[in-house]
């Protein structure tokens, strides 16, 4: 009985994390997959989740929440050039990284849960890998 209660609680918590992912309208998804250059003087970062299943993961730039990613979802953020701290968060576990972008840059950052560790991971990936994952995914809304 106790085991069933624990399993039920785990499902509730997993469901609440996934419920945080809010999908963008189809027109915004289609626009994101065009990979338009960022506005003049700005840079763009695509955060994406390459995994086929898993919980929702919260993404931050500095102290600001970007939004939640679920399985095969992505978000695009246009931002000022310079150095930016970025992290993901999953049930109080955060993995910090940083990225430096220049005007006109378009960069891709994978956010997932590696099998060999607890918590989430956030890391920049090659452009071709990021583009392919975005094209296979669906756009989540940013905050």
- How many alpha or pi helices? 3
The rough form would be described as globular
How many structural domains?
A: 1
- In helices, the fraction of residues equals 10-25%
- For the secondary structure, the number of strands is 9
CATH architecture annotation name: Sandwich
* Most strands sheet: 5 strands, mixed
- CATH top level class name: Mainly Beta
Average of per-residue pLDDT values: 85
In N-to-C order, the SSE pattern is HHEEEEEEEEHE
Contiguous runs where pLDDT drops below 50 for at least 5 residues: 1-19
Pick out its properties.
single chain, 143 residues, alpha+beta, Immunoglobulin-like, 5-stranded mixed sheet, 4-stranded antiparallel sheet, 3 helices, 24% helix, 39% strand, globular, disordered N terminus
Could you characterize what this model shows?
- With 143 residues, this protein is of the alpha+beta class.
- The chain has a single domain (2-139), classed as Immunoglobulin-like, CATH 2.60.40.
- It has three helices and nine strands; from the N terminus they run H-H-E-E-E-E-E-E-E-E-H-E.
- The protein has helices at 2-19, 26-32, 127-136; strands spanning 43-48, 57-61, 64-69, 73-79, 82-90, 93-101, 106-112, 121-125, 138-139.
- The strands form two sheets. The chain has a five-stranded mixed sheet with strand order 8-7-1-4-9, with helices on one face. A four-stranded antiparallel sheet has the order 3-2-5-6, with no helix packed on it.
- Strand 7 and strand 8 form a beta hairpin.
């Amino acid at each position: 009985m106790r085991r069933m209660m624990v399993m039920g609680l785990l499902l509730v918590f997993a469901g609440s994390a996934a419920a945080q992912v809010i999908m963008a309208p189809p027109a915004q998804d289609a626009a994101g997959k065009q990979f338009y250059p960022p506005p003049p003087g700005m840079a763009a970062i695509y955060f994406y989740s390459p995994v086929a299943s898993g919980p929702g993961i919260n993404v931050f730039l500095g102290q600001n929440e970007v939004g939640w990613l679920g399985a095969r979802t992505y978000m695009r953020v246009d931002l000022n050039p310079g150095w930016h701290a970025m992290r993901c968060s999953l049930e109080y576990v955060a993995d910090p990284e940083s990225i430096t972008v220049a005007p006109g840059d378009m960069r891709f950052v994978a956010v997932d849960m590696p099998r060999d560790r607890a918590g989430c991971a956030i890391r920049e990936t090659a452009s071709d890998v990021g583009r392919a994952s975005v094209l296979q995914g669906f756009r989540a809304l940013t905050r």
